[in-house]
Amino acid sequence: MKQKRTINLLFISIVGVLLVLAGFGSINKSKALNLPQTSLSPTLDVALSVTQTMHAIYSATETARPTSTIIPPTATLPPPIATALVIPDEAYIKGFVGHRQFYSIGCETSVAVDLAAFYGVTITEYDFQMSLPKSDNPDLGFVGDVNGPWGQIPPYAYGVHAAPVVDTLKEFGLPAEGGKDYTFEDIKAQLAQSNPVIVWVIGHMEYSEPVEYVDKQGVISIVAPYEHVVVLTGYNGDTVRYNNNGRYADVQIETFLNSWGVLGNMAVYLDYSG
Questions:
Q1: Radius of gyration of the chain (CA)
Q2: Are residues 6 and 139 in the same domain?
Q3: Which whole-number Å values give the CA distances from 42 to 49, 55, 57, 192, 231, in the listed order?
C-alpha cells in the first residue's frame, strides 16, 4: 500500500511538470513561428520522453498491484478407528482382596466395598448398607433385616439385586455399570481388562428354582432361596475363578453358568474406560 501511494504521488508530480512544460511550449510556439522547422525538435523529444515515462509509471503501478494467492484446501484426516477388544483364552486379575462379610445377609455390601477398594476407594460396610434403598422388591432396594437368616425369599429378609447396588456405588462417585442379561463373553471382556465383576449366584455355585415374587405394588421380581454374590477375577478355557468372603476358588464354567442363570445373569462392575 505504501509503495502504491508513492507511485501515485510521483505520477501527480510528473503531470504537474507536463502542465508547466505545456504552458511554456505554447508561449515559445507563438514566438517561434518564423524559426526554421528544426527548432521544434526539442519539444517533440520532451513529449516522447514524457510518454515513455508515463508508460513506465503505468507498468510499475500494474506490477505493484497485489495478486491473489490460491491456497489449496487442507485435507481432512479420517477419525481414528476404534480397535476391537480381542478376548484372550484366559485372563486372571491380581491384587483383588476380599473379606468376610460383617452382616448376616450383607454379601452385596461386602463385595461392593471390596470392589471399590480394588480401585483405591474406601467405603465402610456400614456406610454402604445404610445408603442402599429399602424395598420389598430386591430390584428396587434391600429387602428385610440385614441381620436376618440366610436362605429366605421376599417379603422376608433376602438381600438386594444388581440395580440398587449400581445406583449406590454411583452415589459414592464410582462409575458403576450393571444389571441383568449379561453374557459370559461380556464377563470375560471385563476380566480381560482387569475389571473384577460381581455376579449373583445361588449358594456356593449351586442351582435353585427361580420364584416369581409379586411385591406390594404388583411388580413381579424373580427371586430364589440362598441368593448370594461373589466376585469373579479370572477364567480359562475350563473354569472361572471367584472370591467368596475373602477366599478364592475355581469352578467349572458350566457349573457357574447354571447357578448364575437362575436370577437372570446379573452382574456389576466399574467402568473407567470412559
A1: 46
A2: no
A3: 10, 20, 22, 101, 112
Supply 247's cell numbers: 477366599
pLDDT beyond 50 at 272: yes
Residue 83 lies in a domain: no
Find out whether 114 and 93 touch, Cβ atoms under 8 Å.
no
In which domain, by residue range, is 8 found?
Answer: 2-64
Of 57-71, 78-92, 224-238, 247-261, least confident by mean pLDDT is 57-71
**Which residue's entry shows cell 440398587?**
164
Is residue 92 a contact partner of residue 241, using CB atoms and an 8 Å limit?
yes
Q: Could you tell me the CATH number of the domain that includes residue 259?
A: 3.90.70.10
Domain membership of residue 133 (yes or no) is yes
Q: By CB neighbour count within 10 A (0-12 exposed, 13-18 middle, 19+ buried), where does 179 fall?
A: middle
How many residues would you count in the chain? 274
Distance CA 13, CA 212 (A): 106
39 and 133 share a domain?
no
**Residue 216 contacts residue 228 (beta carbons within 8 Å):** no
Provide the sign of the torsion angle of the four alpha carbons 34, 36, 42, 44, taken in this order.
Answer: positive
Sign of the Cα torsion 165, 167, 170, 175 reads: positive
SS3 state of residue 256: helix
Q: What is the pTM of this model?
A: 0.71
